[in-house]
């Protein structure tokens, strides 16, 4: 596990100010100030970290209306309480977390909803949801068959969720510009519990400083961010007494065993991926004139009943039944019967992406199977790169790096870590000996706060967190019917980041706006 402590930003970044060595209160966000340090005997006293938020003001045109809003970008210092023999000795800086926040001007913060947003990974910064779906500016990358070339572009986003709620985009420690402080240990944050606790601490700090305790509050997560967001929702309740109005799970995975092919004898994922394989095979012409819905429905029925039974029988399965299973799985997944037979009826997803269009020397995207790319080798067992990530990475990275400096005036010479490999191996020590599953936390959160609404977004062509896996986990929640009714689901004809598909982006934006309005339950006293 990486345990390096990155150095602070160079002098030309918004400079941190000196904090005292002794006990001190948390600094509220404010104007950036410059600190002068003195040098004694060729040694410079370390500069203690301080918030470096930069404020800018903007206007977003929505129809005939102009929305005026304030943006703040920068790092907020997280501090831990220090006690000795039960006596409070002060607050010690531990990490600097980067946020980009948007608040609509001339609104009442006690009634204006606010959403806290992050992506997943683990190790991902928040630029994907920020620049692709929710923020007031969005990247122009195009879509399948019409991808934009470099240097890409930005446009206003009149469908931004800012029309309904204030937004705070959070980069976990070691992602974006977030870092452990000098002398700290970044590795402490590269694990399930500390990750949730640090983001919870930041949210509590923001809500308190900004006087948002009476605002309707939301958490929005994508991918691993749905696992994080679910645990965080329960953590905010138990640690801070903070009740949310809504939890948004985009490309959800609450139980990692549902998508894990690596555990020995875990056949669950093989069955749960079959509907995704069927949808992908249909998209790429493997099912003739049949409708996608009928193909996926057949695959779902087989995955629910026959497929788990067939896999569970192993060598006990009669030859005739095995032969029938080979034919069915191959037909639904769009693969050859010979391949399915040699794979012992088990289609691992990385191999599927390289196998489906092997005869065309193409690989299929994992994050979005609508995307294809040339195979590095016609005989490789797995694909060597995800065509969707290759298509989207440059556009999002260029857009954000321009936007944060040129439009939000935040300057920092640290590399913006959109994907931080150093967080791996991610620690799940809390789950040793049991599945990595946060559905019990969701159950507890919904029982404790029966007003909590949950929105789940699925991408039909998502091969990272396939819909059937998430649907099964939701179906197994131990909740009474009146609480189960608080969960709503939306499907989109795209992949993991469904908002790269323009039609899906527009629909998803409208769906989320409606969800925020319903969950906020704003009434006039």
TrEMBL record:
This is Peptidase S10 serine carboxypeptidase. Pfam families: Peptidase_S10. Residues 1-27 are annotated as: Disordered. It comes from Nostocoides australiense Ben110. One of its GO terms (molecular function) is serine-type carboxypeptidase activity. One of its GO terms (biological process) is proteolysis. It comes from the Bacteria. Keywords: Carboxypeptidase, Hydrolase, Protease.
């Amino acid at each position: 596990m990486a345990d390096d402590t990155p150095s602070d930003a160079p002098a030309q970044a918004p400079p941190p100010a000196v904090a005292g060595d002794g006990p001190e209160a948390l600094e509220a966000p404010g104007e950036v100030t410059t600190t002068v340090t003195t040098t004694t005997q060729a040694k410079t006293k370390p500069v203690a970290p301080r918030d470096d938020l930069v404020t800018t003001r903007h206007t977003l045109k929505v129809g005939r209306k102009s929305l005026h809003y304030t943006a703040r970008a920068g790092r907020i210092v997280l501090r831990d309480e220090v006690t000795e023999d039960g006596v409070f000795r002060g607050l010690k800086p531990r990490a600097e977390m980067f946020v980009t926040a948007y608040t609509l001007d001339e609104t009442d913060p006690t009634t204006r909803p606010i959403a806290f947003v992050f992506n997943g990974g683990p190790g991902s910064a928040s630029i994907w949801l920020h620049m692709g779906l929710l923020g007031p500016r969005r990247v122009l990358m195009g879509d399948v068959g019409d991808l934009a070339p470099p240097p890409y572009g930005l446009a206003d986003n009149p469908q931004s969720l800012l029309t309904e709620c204030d937004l705070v985009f959070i980069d976990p420690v070691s992602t974006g510009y977030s870092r452990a402080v000098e002398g700290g240990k970044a590795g402490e944050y590269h694990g399930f519990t500390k990750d949730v606790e640090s983001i919870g601490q930041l949210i509590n700090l923001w809500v308190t400083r900004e006087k948002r305790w009476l605002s309707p509050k939301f958490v929005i997560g994508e991918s691993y961010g749905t696992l994080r967001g679910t645990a965080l929702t329960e953590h905010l309740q138990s640690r801070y007494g903070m009740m949310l109005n809504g939890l948004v799970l985009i490309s959800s995975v609450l139980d990692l065993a549902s998508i894990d092919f690596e555990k020995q004898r875990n056949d669950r994922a093989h069955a749960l991926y079959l509907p995704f394989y069927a949808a992908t095979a249909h998209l790429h012409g493997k099912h003739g004139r049949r409708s996608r819905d009928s193909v996926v429905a057949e695959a779902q029925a087989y995955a629910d009943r026959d497929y788990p039974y067939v896999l569970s029988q192993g060598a006990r399965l009669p030859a005739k039944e095995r032969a029938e299973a080979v034919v069915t799985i191959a037909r639904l997944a769009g693969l050859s019967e010979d391949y399915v037979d040699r794979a012992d009826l088990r289609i691992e997803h990385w191999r599927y992406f390289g196998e489906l269009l092997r005869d065309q020397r193409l690989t299929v995207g994992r994050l979005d199977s609508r995307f294809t790319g040339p195979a590095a080798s016609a005989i490789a067992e797995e694909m060597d790169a995800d065509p969707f990530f290759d298509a989207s990475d440059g556009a999002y990275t260029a857009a954000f790096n321009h936007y944060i400096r040129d439009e939000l005036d935040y300057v920092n010479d640290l590399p913006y870590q959109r994907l931080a490999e150093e967080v791996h191996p991610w620690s799940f020590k809390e789950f040793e000996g049991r599945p990595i599953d946060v559905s019990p936390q969701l159950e507890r959160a919904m029982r404790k706060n029966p007003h909590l609404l949950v929105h789940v977004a699925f991408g039909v062509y998502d091969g990272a967190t396939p819909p059937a896996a998430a649907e099964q986990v939701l179906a197994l929640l131990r909740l009474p019917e009146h609480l189960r009714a608080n969960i709503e689901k939306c499907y989109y004809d795209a992949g993991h980041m469904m908002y790269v598909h323009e039609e899906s982006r527009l629909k998803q934006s409208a769906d989320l706006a409606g969800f925020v309005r319903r969950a906020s339950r704003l009434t006039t006293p």
